[in-house]
């Protein structure tokens, strides 16, 4: 069998690529936003019970901590603050989580939120479950990773400034990171699922297929009415087997990347297997959320799944969702600072890459899209000829620093056409099925021009009736 060049390469090259290959930071940016949102939702529900859960005046006084908690390897700021200080630390935690979610002072907010999250969890672990433990692990990984390079308001502001100052967006390389935080997250999730699988198959109910039926009839955990649980009981062996397969398949995500060092495998095999495993895990946790009352565990796992999305995953998703759809051309005024900043926002939101941006002040771009505008009825045929004359230099159209369109002849009539030239015209209202495209400018105070309205020229005004 013919071996590929990557399989015959230097082992140190494989190791370096395994740990330090550059990948998109978008996945960890999305995980950071979801972490802030989920954590904020968890602690916001405890608003009325903060002192009851986390202070000497509540259910767990400081004098009783040694009887319930481990004495070693434990840290909590709540051990040194009075009852009134607990409320202030709680408010600081909510504010820091909101800043993490929005991407404002992201690194400092992550440090504060992680420290306070550990402090509240370590003070009263009686309230915790597996989802809270996973949430702390996600916070620690976010603290180590450059998750602030994408999906932050600070980064969006910097990109806008760069576009206005230099006319170019931030390089894509500035929104990448080394792959090692991804590896740590993958291994952590694999440990969770594989250890859970081992515990399941060590018993009897998961082997005989009755485990899901028992859970659906459990009065403390099940959300399902009794008659619905009885109706789904015959499907218990199928759902039990699906759960075991979905969890044990995470072993493939650990083995396949290492096998590529020694065996030539299809290039897209790793990504296809990973997306299949993630989809199976999503369906499993969705079923748990709908049928069982297990707190925020499934939402925390959905949060961790976002961090496992890489460039090829986003690309495969875009190809699937964009199948058969044409790209949308957005015309904008390249001389307008507001328009250029709006283009940056649209590029950030356009993760499906369906938008194509065209500067309508560029002569070549204008000629390329003018026929399409005419075919869709967005401009009148006589305006096309006038724009062609302007491009030929017969009737030059210029713009000064005040962005007041000046045309040499025909007064208001040509001024309205020049506004259309720079993207300020309102599309015709007789075509309701066609999408309405508007381009605005902060430098101009001219009213929108209606192409159907005609005004008499100066020569016609001078003619006697």
Q: N- to C-terminal separation?
A: 94 Å
Give unreliable regions as ranges.
1-7, 393-455
What do the pLDDT scores average to? 77
> How much β-strand is present in the residues?
under 5%
How many helices in DSSP terms?
22
Major sheet attributes: 2 strands, antiparallel
Radius of gyration: 30 Å
Order of helices and strands: HEHHHHHHHEHHHHHHHHHEHEHHEEHH
Shape: globular
Sheet with the most strands: spatial strand order: 1-2
Assign a percent range to the helix content.
55-70%
Number of strands: 6
Structural class: mainly alpha
List the helices and strands and how they pair.
Blueprint: H1 11-20, E1 22-24, H2 26-44, H3 50-54, H4 65-68, H5 83-102, H6 106-123, H7 130-144, H8 153-166, E2 176-178, H9 180-201, H10 205-208, H11 211-216, H12 226-232, H13 236-248, H14 250-259, H15 269-291, H16 297-306, H17 311-321, E3 328-332, H18 337-349, E4 355-359, H19 363-375, H20 381-392, E5 397-399, E6 405-407, H21 411-421, H22 458-462
Parallel strand pairs: 3-4
Antiparallel strand pairs: 1-2, 5-6
Helix pairs in contact: 2-5, 2-7, 2-16, 5-6, 6-7, 7-16, 8-18, 9-14, 13-15, 14-15, 15-16
